[in-house]
Amino acid sequence: MPDKTPHPVDRHVSARIRLRRRELGMTQQTLANAVGLTFQQIQKYESGASRIAVSRLYDVATALDTSIGYFLEGRGGDQGVQSNARLAEVSAFVAGDEGLAFAKVLHQMPRAVRRHMLAMAQAIAGVQGLKR
After folding, report:
1. CB atoms within 10 A of CB 120
2. Dist CA 12 CA 48 (whole Å)
3. Which of 8, 17, 126, 131 could make a disulfide contact with 84, Cβ separation 3.0–4.6 Å?
4. Crossing angle, helix 28-35 and helix 39-47, to 10 degrees?
């Protein structure tokens, strides 16, 4: 029986669609209307429940005022399936309500404060800082 889990690339593209739509403050209904679909189909694309054809991705990119390449940005090479899955997970978080609100608040802070916030978050999570 075939594996029903979405491919990491499909999950990444789904997360990027949601992220771009949310960046623009666009509802699923508005996007659906722009590409001639139902909002339920947009939900399926964004959740990864349905794969998106390249021609439909082109329509979505046009409606979201971006290029098709945008949806693959940050995916990396084919050798890092685990890192790609992690990137899709992070993209999905950022595209969610909490992640988007957090990103907007961070973006409004001065850079020095953001760096301190990052260091504090990394210390709490027990992860190493950015490499320079």
Report:
1. 10
2. 9
3. 8
4. 110
d(CA 3, CA 31): 30
pTM of the model: 0.61
Closest CA to 76 of 65, 86, 68: 86
| CA–CA gap between residue 120 and residue 67 (Å, rounded) | 35
Q: Considering only CA atoms, which of 10, 16, 117, 119 is closest in space to residue 67?
A: 16
Q: Following DSSP, what letter does each residue of 69-130 receive, concatenated?
A: GGGGTT---TT-HHHHHHHHHHHHHHHSHHHHHHHHHHHHS-HHHHHHHHHHHHHHHT----
Angstrom distance (rounded) from CA 44 to CA 50: 5
Q: Residue 44 class from Cβ within 10 Å (0-12 exposed, 13-18 middle, 19+ buried)?
A: middle
Give the integer Cα–Cα distance in Å for 98 and 73.
Answer: 22
Q: By C-alpha distance, which of 103, 92, 68, 96 is closest to 12?
A: 92
Among the listed residues 10, 5, 126, 6, the one whose alpha carbon sits nearest the alpha carbon of residue 75: 10
